[in-house]
Amino acid sequence: MPGRAILLGLLLSGAPLWAHADTLRCGSQLVSTGDRAFAVERKCGPPVQRDLVGYGLSANGRQEFIVEEWIYGPNNGTLSILTFEGNRLIRIETQRAR
């Protein structure tokens, strides 16, 4: 039993300060991965910060797209980081504000 408690303590102490989600609540609205940037901005308003991360290539390598991160919050001590590829929301992360 003590071995399990130590293992659990080690796992929890190494837990990341961020997590992934498929949806984000903005007031009474929900945004989800796959949503377009204009729809996210209409539901959540303008982000606190907007960063150009870089550029990516489509799977066939023929089309280039912009990769951006939008940051919302902090709300209850948590930042929401939304990643867009080619104007589509591909990832929603939450991170404790520092």
Q: Which descriptors apply to this entry?
A:
2 helices, two-stranded antiparallel sheet, 98 residues, alpha+beta
Describe this structure in words.
With 98 residues, this protein is α+β, with helices and mostly antiparallel strands. The chain has one domain (18-96): 2-Layer Sandwich (Beta-lactamase Inhibitory Protein, Chain:B, domain 1). 20% of the residues lie in helices and 51% in strands. It has a five-stranded antiparallel beta sheet with strand order 1-7-6-5-4, covered by helices on one side. It has a two-stranded antiparallel sheet with strand order 2-3. The protein is globular, with a radius of gyration of 17 Å. Mean pLDDT is 85; it is low at 5-18.
Classify the helix fraction into a percent range. Answer: 10-25%
* Structural class by helix and strand composition: alpha+beta
Widest β-sheet, arrangement of strands: 1-7-6-5-4
- Give the overall average pLDDT: 85
Give the N-terminus to C-terminus distance in angstroms: 35 Å
Q: Treating each run of at least 4 consecutive H or I residues as one helix, how many helices? A: 2
| Number of strand elements | 7
Radius of gyration: 17 Å
Strand proportion: over 45%
Q: What's the order of the H and E elements?
A: HEEEHEEEE
The CATH topology annotation reads as Beta-lactamase Inhibitory Protein, Chain:B, domain 1
- What is the name of the CATH class? Alpha Beta
Compute the number of structural domains.
1
